[in-house]
Amino acid sequence: MINKYIEIFIKSGKEIMLQVAGLQTDVGNCYIKQDIINKNKISILIEILGSISGRSWVTMEDDIAKRIASNMMGGFPVIELDEMAKSAIAELCNMILGNVATEFSNNNINIDITPPKMYLNESHGIDSSKKDYLCIPFYFEDKTNMEINLSFD
To answer: What is the mean pLDDT of residues 78-93?
Structure first.
């Protein structure tokens, strides 16, 4: 059953990334990791509530975040992650998890998601050593990546 859940996250990530940011992605092998804290990445937390509960942390490097934000804003160059660019990235993550929630609902599993919380290049105060996270890496054509890291209660 967990594989079916993972497939929903993969499908939603690929579809939303293509539809909203115009970027094709390949999905790497999923793996378990214990530490999602990386001070050199952008981290977006969206909690999952309901029949299945847990956390999703979407992480990416600054450069890919700028590229995604630029694509979402019609190709307008994004030099730094200002408020507009951060809002675009948060909304992208919200769309991915919203799509996940819809797909779960279509499978008679009711979940809700919290609004995204973004952390830029900082430790976000979570002791991730107490949890294992399933990492789903999404690779772009230039081999940069975005990850969806999941933990379920």
So the answer is: 95
Q: What is the arithmetic mean of pLDDT over 44-53?
A: 93
**Helix or strand or coil: residue 26?**
strand
Q: What b-and-e string marks burial along 86-117, b requiring 16 or more CB atoms within 10 Å of the CB?
A: bbbbbebbbbbbebbbebbeeeeeebebeebe
Global pTM? 0.90
Instruction: Compute the distance between CA of residue 25 and CA of residue 16 in angstroms, rounded to an integer.
Output: 10
Give the integer Cα–Cα distance in Å for 13 and 110.
19
Beta bridge partners of 110: none
pLDDT at residue 93, as a whole number: 97
Measure CA of the first residue to CA of the last residue in the chain; give whole Å.
Answer: 15
